[in-house]
Structures are given as structure tokens and as C-alpha cells.
């Protein structure tokens, strides 16, 4: 069955690069009217060239007041993908206030705020909606030297369940996807070789990292009516890594 989002409005954060960009492009191909949000105007310009009909918003979601000012007046959305996120490589003994504040601000607080704004619009429209949050396998398995990042994704998983319970009465579904390493252009350089790469690959029964489309396709499914009774889940996309107690 072909997925069609004709007459649906979608907001995708973190849409300038990588997974978020892939999701924005896929939604447009499925007929949605897509609004792409990121903090880099240059990324939005190239996205606009790739998908001429896409709407773009250049916004740093660190700024709570500006985010309210920009997003609250917009017409209601039917679909939301919270893809914006940042990583941090501190161990438990190296955590800094700056790293904590930055990662939690983007990976958790901004998602709570944007979801609040968009969900209120969905409720006012009265036709329900679907929200997908981009989490990580780091919330489900220990990942060394990612103390703050893993914590932020664990918090996001918990928030997803709370939002799913509270918004269900409005026919709004909220789900989470939890990928392992995704080979974005930046990640390809970092994970190209070395002991860390080998150790990570060895934890994945299917024996490879993810391509961007390996995440995009499940997200599109969760946004669609094909997943109409899926709500409040955290979906590992990890080639079976989370099935093993290792």
C-alpha cells in the first residue's frame, strides 16, 4: 500500500541535514505540505533547491521566546517530526554544565516546547495527528562516553510515553524511533574505521550501520495511518542489537 499525505501539513525540525532532511524530502514526495526547520539558512537554501515547494524556517530552538513567536501563529500541522538533536562525548567523570545545558536544551526541552505548540494546533483543528521523536539506541543500551547524550534520549523516551497517554484522547499519536549509528556524511568519517567502529558493528547482528533511509522509512510508517494503533512506543532500529543481552 502506498503512503500518501496529500492535504497534510508536516513540520520537521533538524531538517537541514542527515535524517531530518531525508524525512522532509520523503514527506514531500508522499504529498505532504512540508515546513522544514533548522538553524542554518545555507542548509535550508539547498533543501529549497532540492524540493522547490517546501516551506522553510530558520530558527535556533535554544531560544524559547523566539520559538513561541515563530511557531505559535502558524496554521495547524497534522504531522510533526522532532529530529533536531545534538551529541556530546563526555564520560560520567567529565560532564560539564555547558555540555549538559546544550544537549538537554536541544534534545529534550526544545522537543517539549515544539510538541506543546504543535499539539495545541492539532487539538484546535480537531482532526488528530501523528508525532514522531528521534531518539537513540543510547537510551536503551549503555554507551560509554555519552553520559549527557544518553540521559537526554532516555528523558525523551519517557516524555514520548507521557505525551502518548495525554494526547491520545485528541486522536494524536506520539511515538519514538531509536536508531543505532546512522551513516550521515559526518558519521561516515567518524565511523569509517578503528576499534570503536569494530566494537559497535560487532554488537549489530545484521552486521552493518544504518543508512539514512533505514530511519526515514519507519518514521514515514509511524506518521501514516498504516500505524493507526501504534502509540507510545520506542522502536529500536538497530539490526537486532537490542535483542541481545550483551
TrEMBL record:
Gene3D superfamilies: NAD(P)-binding Rossmann-like Domain (3.40.50.720). The keyword NADP applies. InterPro entries: L-xylulose/Carbonyl_redctase, NAD(P)-bd_dom_sf, Sc_DH/Rdtase_CS, SDR_fam. It comes from the Eukaryota. One of its GO terms (molecular function) is L-xylulose reductase (NADPH) activity. The keyword NADP applies. GO terms for biological process: glucose metabolic process; xylulose metabolic process. Keywords: NADP, Oxidoreductase. Homotetramer. Belongs to the short-chain dehydrogenases/reductases (SDR) family. This is L-xylulose reductase. It comes from Strongylocentrotus purpuratus (Purple sea urchin).
